[in-house]
Specification:
Number of helices: 14
Order of helices and strands: HEHHEEEEHHHHHEHHEEEEHHHH
Strand order of the largest sheet: 1-3-2
Radius of gyration: 26 Å
Number of domains: 2
């Protein structure tokens, strides 16, 4: 098989993957699946390994096709169907679920499940022959003799992710698109030695000493005491009790995000949230990053407005896997 043919196979496979992801309504991150199922993220991983959920591997790890979920959990009967399937390759399982089947009067297995035809879908899944994922991932007709895809070689491109529910689609799976234009880059550059590589990397590496990530003014202990009009002992006590967050600037100095204080006191609930994170930096970064589970606002702003339990639950859910 020539390299040009391999390139065409891979390109066609990427087109097919993009079609499947679109038809599936996008891909969910594990944390979002955990929220839907109301289980720890670790259990989502266990269910993936057990074959009870469909997950496709992307450049950012495993992602879960949205079509297999409802706002209340997994599509009824899907785990039982997947348990009967001989197909184990992730993309093939997704394609099987979405492709219309004559035995189901033109419905896809997913559509049949939603229509309550669990036994029919189980029968089809049980009878479906196993395929070698290194040989076939069915796709649209292509020019010449390109009629199969090398599925295991097609996992480099990460499909888009979505953080919300499945989207409605107007195009059926078998409405294939002809004449797809595949754009290619110039490929890999010339190989260089390890020493040359390090030198080139040093040329483009820039040290970033900014504190933009903190989304807050960072003050030393002396400045913080002055700003809040409190004693140094009080600030130390808050820090020791975990009531406030402090970062170590160097071996002898700490700095405090000013945003965590209101009316000369720490924002209420901050200590309960910080305890869910392994380091002050991780806790603070989570607190200042808008979060879909805190009304799409930064959790610290929700704390400030009194939504303490909401933020605590979000923090707990964010770290179930750890």
């Amino acid at each position: 098989m020539t390299m040009s043919l391999v390139d065409e196979l891979i390109a066609a496979g990427e087109v097919r993957k993009a079609e499947l992801v679109e038809l599936a309504g996008g891909l969910y991150m594990p944390s979002y699946v955990a929220a839907i199922l109301k289980v720890p993220e670790q259990l989502v991983e266990q269910r993936r390994k057990a074959g009870e959920l469909i997950a496709v591997e992307t450049g950012q790890g495993y992602r879960y096709p949205a079509c297999q979920f409802t706002p209340h959990g997994i599509v009824t009967g899907l785990p039982e169907v997947l348990a009967m399937m001989a197909i184990r390759h992730d993309w093939m399982r997704l394609e099987w679920l979405l492709v219309p089947d004559e035995a189901l009067e033109g419905l896809s297995p997913l559509e049949a499940l939603k229509a309550g035809r669990l036994e029919d879908v189980i029968d089809i899944a049980r009878d479906h022959e196993e395929q070698d994922p290194t040989q076939v991932l069915s796709t649209e007709d292509t020019s010449g003799d390109i009629t199969t895809l090398l599925a295991d070689d097609l996992d480099d491109e990460a499909p888009r992710e979505v953080e919300h529910g499945p989207q409605s689609l107007n195009r059926p799976l078998d409405d294939t698109r002809k004449g797809v234009l595949v754009m290619k880059g110039s490929g890999l550059g010339p190989l260089v030695s390890l020493e040359e590589g390090k030198a080139l990397l040093d040329e483009i590496t820039v040290d970033d000493d900014s504190t933009d990530w903190a989304a807050s003014e960072l003050l030393t202990a002396d400045r913080m005491v002055e700003e809040l009009s409190i004693s140094a002992a009080t600030l130390d006590l808050w820090r020791d009790n975990g009531t406030v967050i402090a970062f170590r600037k160097d071996a002898h100095e700490l700095v405090y995000p000013a945003r965590q204080f209101e009316h000369s006191r720490p924002i209420e609930g901050l200590d309960r949230v910080a305890g869910y994170f392994p380091s002050p930096e991780e806790a603070w970064e989570w607190l200042v990053t808008p979060n879909q589970y805190t009304d799409s606002a930064a959790p610290i702003d929700r704390l400030r407005s009194g939504h303490i339990e909401e933020v605590v639950r979000a923090a707990e859910g964010a770290n179930d896997y750890q």
